[in-house]
Amino acid sequence: MTAYDVEPGDGVHPGKPVTVDRYTLAARINHWITAISLVLLALSGLSLFTPSLFFLTALFGGGQWTRAIHPWLGVVLFFSFGILFIRFWRANLWRSEDNTWLTRIRDVLLGHEERLPELGKYNAGQKFVFWGMSFLILVLIASGIVVWDQYFYAFTSIEQKRIAVLVHSLAAVAIICVWIIHVYAAIWVKGTMNAMTRGQVTGGWAWRHHRKWLRELVAGKRDTAGTPRTPAE
Amino acid sequence: MLNPGPNPPIAPVPAKFGQQDLIRRSASSVTPPAERQTEVAKLIDVSKCIGCKACQAACLEWNNLHEEVGTFNGSYTNPPDLTPASFTLMRFTEWVNPETDNLEWLIRKDGCMHCEDPGCLKACPAPGAIVQYSNGIVDFDHDKCIGCGYCVKGCPFNIPRISKVDNKAYKCTLCSDRVAVGQWPACAKACPTQAISFGSKADMKAHAAERIVDLKSRGYKTAGLYDPPGVGGTHVMYVLQHADKPSIYAGLPDNPRISPIVEAWKGVTKYVGMGVMGFAAVAGVFHYLVAGANKVSPEDEANAEKLTKGDRS
């Protein structure tokens, strides 16, 4: 029985430095398909959101192409994120230490990790990004379908479409802000990017930011090593 | 009685208005001309309409449109709704006047109202796809249209239609090409009873006033002009026998205005949204400058090694 936040493929390799497997190849590919579609959606969506960014339609081959491709990118994002959700939801369940983390948000922002509780695979900020993205993607796909006139025009009234387009733009602004937080955190916390590119982090990174998770991985390894069927290292 | 519409000029004449006369341009700003042209208007006198559909036929012909052969739906209204090919449509309503118990056949020629405050233009995200000339005509520039359907959401009268063929929005142009060379719109030219007339907005209002006096003398106590102030007035106006209840005329809006939802979407959401996203990005940069990178220390690595070594023993 592994801990709730240990995902398949997570593992620890002793050495100098210690390396920790954080994301499998499949999870990384899944993440980057989601990421690319989200960025393209933001660019194409913003180009129709405000006239000052209409020039971005040139990236997609003009206004007509932008209008046509944006909803399909949304479909890609929805399914890609759906798979990501199945992978990550369990480890993103809220725990009591997340409340403590939140009350000490000042220490988080100032980088005083020593004053924070030991955390599982994800901290409260990462969980906020995960659940925020999940909720907003649902809102965006639902409202997006209502205004996808090419295929769904007949199913809703114009008044419903007006509400949907307003909700869609508000949710889009919100998800872009969540995305900014997500990307900034990955840049700010050094050693994080490697988790999504190479799949690994250093032991020091895991110790500093997700010590509970690291302890569980080490303990899990000890358990496995103890069972006779597993070959000794 | 008005004079009949002018016949086409024999020699080519320069267009009376063009790009220099724009007072509004979608998703962009224009410098309005110093002098506004005489505002034009089409007046549709519902009380004089005989439902012959000459206007519908003339519109199809002038604009080279080809409506699909439809099916009978139990009403003279055909096609049943405006389409990308039918810029105008006679809507037939059988209405029983509760005061007289008489059946009244209300026939309203539906189509773009050419609002002074056009909701379609305000909703449009494509620069220059919808323009408003200083004479009041609201026109679509199909080369710039991206087919998003925002104009459909912006319009208080449910007029624009998106073509399934080329994914562009279509509606009545008030025959801007004809008006530019001094002609009446095709529908007005074709109308055999002058239920549709065309001229300066002031003249049309004066003509409507005469008509309303006449209608009132015939017992239509609530006859009046439909020039709704909620959209700043329109450049297509109706004379209605029952102007106190426009909605009996196949759902003509009683008090049309640009939906507050559309106003919120195109107004405060756009500016606050850009502000919030910009703030988030700037806050990130500032945080990095003030707090610096969050780096893993050699002690962290040493602690991890100690922990995993404990595992080995």
Detailed description of the structure:
The complex is a heterodimer of chains A (233) and B (313). With 233 residues, chain A is mainly alpha-helical. Chain A has a domain at 25-180: Up-down Bundle (Fumarate Reductase Cytochrome B subunit), CATH 1.20.950.20. Helices cover 65% and strands 4% of the residues of chain A. Chain A has a 3-stranded antiparallel β-sheet with strand order 1-2-3. In chain A, helix 2 crosses helix 5 (124-146). The longest helix of chain A is centred in the C-terminal third of the chain and has 31 residues, at 158-188. The radius of gyration of chain A is 21 Å and the shape is elongated. Chain B has 313 residues and is of the alpha+beta class. Helices cover 29% and strands 17% of the residues of chain B. Chain B is built from 9 helices and 11 strands. Chain B has helices at residues 54-62, 119-123, 150-154, 176-179, 186-190, 201-217, 260-266, 268-291, 298-312; strands spanning 22-25, 40-45, 89-97, 102-110, 130-133, 138-140, 161-162, 169-170, 196-200, 224-226, 236-240. In chain B, strands 9-2-11-10 form a 4-stranded mixed β-sheet. A 3-stranded antiparallel β-sheet of chain B has the order 1-5-6, with no helix packed on it. In chain B, strands 3-4 form a two-stranded antiparallel sheet. Chain B starts with 21 loop residues before the first strand and ends with a helix. The chains are: A mainly alpha (233), B alpha+beta (313). Chains A and B meet through helix 1, helix 2, helix 7, helix 9 and helix 10 of A and helix 3, helix 7, helix 8 and helix 9 of B.
Poorly predicted spans of chain A: 228-233
Low-pLDDT ranges of chain B: none
**Strand arrangement, major sheet of chain A:** 1-2-3
Helix content of chain B: 25-40%
Largest sheet of chain B: 4 strands, mixed
Number of E-state strands of chain B: 11
The main sheet of chain B orders its strands as 9-2-11-10
The percent range for strand residues of chain A is: under 5%
Radius of gyration of chain A: 21 Å
Find the CATH superfamily of the domain at 25-180 in chain A.
Answer: Transmembrane di-heme cytochromes, Chain C
Helix content of chain A: 55-70%
What's the average pLDDT of chain B?
A: 95
Per DSSP, the total helix count of chain B is 9
